[in-house]
Design the sequence.
């Protein structure tokens, strides 16, 4: 990643961060006002107390987010995809363990809730509200490692946009729930659903690609060799010419976020009868996104990418000796 690109990303992240924060504050204010109109102050107190308790429990990660992002900076800068994938698998396990620990710690506080709350609401209702709050908090840990990767690539603005969109959807859901049902159970369930939706959005990076021949020529230039040593054997049995990253149908629904495509989940029902006589004309003009129609690297660009790998640098150093 070039210095100009990093500076540009940093500026965009700051701008989007401020805009997202302002947007979330406005939505929170509107949501709080509507909450007080349709529900009593008791529910508002419970809402605030449970949020504070779970915020304290969330501190159990002890700066794990910062440590994960910091450890990803170097492999991201070196474009070491193998190391990045390995580290993400490891951090995924760590976050899952943290999520389980936070959930169990939260459950251990259940017997002590009556000491914190003085309310006319039944103890069973209070316990169920608390468990739903706990589930909502824990669910965010299951994608925390992906958010860390976006931060390492200096693409936090994507997460900010997703968070702002999720908050907008959440506030609309809250308004509908409070206006129609005036039920706190459904209100919390709507919060959990919104969190799950915001955490299940697929992001596909617009990564460049190169052909096998380009890669072979780049390796020859790095280690020395003659182009006549390259043998073209043709397409082997069952071999694909390129990798498909987004299908034609996914492209029709994807949102272009600059360096990434955001692919929303498919919310269609299981009744496919209507799709026999209804189609999507936009798909006629779209193609799939694959390693053949993305940005194709030249031999020089491929050589530069390969030379940035630690293993290649070590091998080149050995050859010089």
Sequence:
């Amino acid at each position: 990643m070039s210095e100009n690109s990093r500076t540009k990303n940093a500026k965009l992240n700051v701008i989007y961060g401020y805009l997202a924060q302002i947007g979330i504050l406005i939505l929170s204010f509107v949501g709080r006002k509507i909450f007080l109109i349709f529900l009593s102050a008791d529910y508002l107190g419970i809402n605030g107390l449970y949020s504070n308790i779970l915020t304290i429990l969330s501190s159990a990660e002890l700066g794990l987010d910062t440590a994960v992002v910091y450890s990803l900076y170097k492999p991201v800068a070196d474009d070491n995809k193998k190391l990045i994938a390995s580290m993400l698998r490891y951090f995924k396990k760590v976050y899952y363990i943290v999520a389980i620990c936070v959930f169990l710690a939260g459950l251990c506080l259940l017997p002590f809730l009556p000491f914190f709350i003085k309310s006319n609401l039944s103890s069973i209702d209070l316990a169920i509200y608390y468990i739903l709050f706990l589930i909502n908090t824990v669910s965010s840990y299951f994608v925390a490692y992906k958010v860390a990767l976006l931060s390492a690539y200096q693409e936090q603005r994507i997460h900010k946009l997703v968070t702002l969109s999720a908050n907008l959807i959440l506030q609309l859901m809250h308004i509908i729930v409070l206006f129609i049902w005036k039920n706190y159970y459904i209100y919390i369930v709507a919060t959990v659903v919104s969190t799950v939706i915001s955490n299940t959005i697929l992001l596909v990076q617009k990564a460049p690609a190169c052909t096998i021949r380009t890669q072979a020529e780049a390796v020859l230039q790095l280690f020395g060799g003659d182009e006549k040593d390259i043998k073209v054997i043709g397409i082997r049995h069952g071999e694909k010419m390129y990798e498909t990253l987004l299908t034609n149908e996914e492209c029709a629904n994807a949102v272009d976020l600059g360096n990434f495509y955001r692919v929303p989940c498919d919310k269609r029902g299981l009744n496919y009868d209507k799709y026999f006589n209804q189609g999507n004309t936009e798909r006629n003009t779209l193609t799939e996104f694959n390693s053949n129609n993305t940005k194709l690297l030249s031999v020089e660009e491929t050589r530069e990418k390969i030379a940035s790998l630690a293993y290649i640098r070590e091998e080149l150093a050995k050859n010089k000796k």
Remarks:
- The chain has 13 helices and five strands.
- The chain has a mean pLDDT of 82.
